[in-house]
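ping. complex inputs:
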Amino acid sequence: MNIAEGAMVSVYSDAMAFLLIIGLMILPDRGHRKNETEAKLFMVLCFNILLVAFFGGICYALRGQSWEWMPLAELISKTVVELALANIVYQWVVYVDFKLYKSRDQLRRRYRGLYLPVLILMIALIVNLFTGILFTIRPDGGYDSTLMYDVLMAVEYIYILISVLLIIQYDRAHPGRRSFSIIPALVPMVLGSVVSVFTSYSATALGIAVGMVLLYFSMINGWRFEDAESGYYNRALLTELINSDSPLVDVIHGAIFFETSGDAGKLGALLKREMPPMSVIVHESEKRFVLLTRSGQQGDLGFLADLVSDASEEYEGGAVSLKTKCESRKKEEDAKAFIRRTILKDNDTEKN
Amino acid sequence: MNWLSATNIGTIIMDGATVLLLVGMMLYTKLYRERGRSGDKLFFGMMILVLIAALFDGMNFFLEESPFAFKGGLLIFGDTVFSLAYEIFPFLYILYLLCLRHWDEKKIAKRRIFFAIPAAVAVLIVLGNALMYLIGQKGYLFYIDEAGAYQYGAYYDIINIIVGIYLIFILYELCRINLRYLLAVVILVAARVGLRMIIRGVSATSFVLAVFLVYAHIQMMNDEFYEEERA
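pong. complex structure:
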């Protein structure tokens, strides 16, 4: 099998992307994370990248071959690649939104409409198989595209733009609150696309695969601050806040301390429902939560504590009983000192 | 830069991807360096090695067919550094796997001498080849011919054989760690060897080494206790 020299580069880069994604799909072994929405969205993305890398590699390997069925095989391979790419950009926006807001309801509400352009693109690609309205395969390999193809492909870049806008919007509304970094993941993705657009070599799949690996690393880096069972932040976050220059410190000025003798899960759900979206809920120990808030005003903290106390009455038989403690934190150092005292107090309680 | 052939550009793309991957990994493995256990130091050492390998490999492929008069010495220097990194990497990797198996430090130290022998031999062979260039002799691993072109020597495969020896030990250790990890590495090695047979011109050695690190990192993060341990 003689592969043209230029095509070799693309085959190689697709093969490497395939190997990276295979590793991402078969190596993680975290039973409790497997069924989380984030993990599922991530896997869907990985599967689509696998398709792009595999069929993209086939596309390039077929170029220059003199087999009779080569144009048909290349047409099918390219169609699969384009279908998967369209799905990737849509899934990417969904994934970014979920990473930011962690809300499945929001996804259901907001993203049905956004699927429409991708659906049109997919239908056009399938129609193209029989009509050549988007691109046709040349007898010697490669393809000739139409203006309609370029216009529809531009839709994919709009999705990338939407994901960036989502992040900017989130950062403006919740400064310092974002718990994952997107830039290291986006850089290889963008560079891969740039190489593919401005040279005759395809590095799209490789760029996306490297970006996905970095995104996964960012994800597992963030897991150390999450309680695996409840999904809230854990005590490690408090330690991180007092030991490092975490940007969260900049937005935390108040803290409320909740204890329950009842069901901690119910208390957690209650806090999540009643508290402003910008507050940070830390499941600090088995029966205790610390709510970190943006306001350090006694009045605000008291109001929030009363809100939870009132809401807890909904539970039958007083399943949740609360003790509240409000502390006014106007300065970062005071907030750190409060968290430090909280941890020390908890250590003493455990010892006793 | 008209002198760059498609395969040279391909290698530079792969090395660029390696650098991006490693820089990203360094951002997300800051905790390892802060924790400073033997395994963490080994991991960091391997990242640095692969980064060096990628940079020098990229430089070599950039210069290989260039018209620059000074490229001869740089090519030999670059390939010597690359080969040293390529030979030392599997030695560190096998020690790292022993750390992943939670062996105690004394036990690893005993095995370290045994595992260091092939790497030490390889280092001597590579340095000997560089010495040949310095004294004006034709190298046995790689050399610059009279026309100023880079050539592989008659015994270039020695360095691959030594890495192959390590690979046997690595696969054995992987069998004892996790079969999925073993499967991923077997696919990686088989794909690399297969691609090398079909596509000769493109070098993705540094990238494959970086993928070894990616797999190792994912495997380590599978440890159920790891989240709490790090905190």
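Strands of chain A lie at 135-137, 143-145, 254-259, 280-285, 288-293, 323-328.
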